[in-house]
Write a structure and sequence with these properties.
Length: 203
């Protein structure tokens, strides 16, 4: 398996179809990536919609949890991920380039990096999500046993902080916009935060 896509979901019935279809539309061998959907405390039809879209794809996985924490949901996905690479995608976001997978893997392999950083993305309004989990495409073996904390906010800052301090940390910036970020919804698992904790220059 080349890629594990981990998607934490909390009441995303109006968004999850767009997200999943953007992943399934990738110009990439469909049996070489798995989609891991984490149903976290959902009270709507998110799971039903997602299962319908992914029907027939035996490699995909559904996990039901009651964390109400995006970080802990991502951890649940990491525990079952089998891909060489891991990408945490928010369920209300979507990919805007059908060659996103190939672009990221190609960039990483060209320079033997362990992490790719999405420098540019599209959003409805200007935001500073420098440390958001979805901006990083990881080599899974490099993540190792590093996991997100149970913090309500800033868990992605902390996670990347641990990652960036590892001995073999090598990051490549990807200039081409591949990802559309939806401004955080009221009550979403992921909210706007101050991302100024670490000093790594990603701009």
């Amino acid at each position: 398996m080349d890629i594990s896509i981990i998607i934490p979901c909390y009441n995303l019935e109006h968004y999850i179809e767009r997200c999943l279809n953007s992943i399934l539309s990738q110009n990439y061998e469909s049996n070489l990536f798995e989609i891991i959907v984490i149903i976290d405390s959902c009270t709507d039809n998110t799971e039903k919609i997602a299962r319908g879209i992914l029907a027939g794809r035996s490699q995909d996985k559904f996990i039901t949890v009651g964390h109400n924490r995006a970080g802990l949901s991502r951890n649940s996905g990491l525990e079952v991920a089998t891909g060489k690479y891991v990408w945490f995608i928010d369920g209300d976001d979507y990919l805007i380039d059908v060659n996103a997978f190939s672009e990221l893997i190609g960039k990483m392999q060209n320079v033997s990096s362990t992490v790719a950083y999405l420098k540019n993305f599209v959003s409805e309004r200007p935001i500073s999500e420098n440390w958001a989990a979805w901006r990083f495409f990881y080599e899974r073996s490099f993540i190792g046993d590093t996991r997100f904390s149970d913090k309500v906010i800033d868990e992605d800052i902390e996670f990347f902080g641990f990652i960036s301090r590892k001995k073999d940390f090598r990051i490549i910036k990807v200039e081409k916009p591949l990802y559309h970020h939806t401004f955080p919804r009221e009550g979403s698992l992921v909210t706007e935060k101050n991302k100024s904790l670490f000093r790594l220059d990603l701009n």
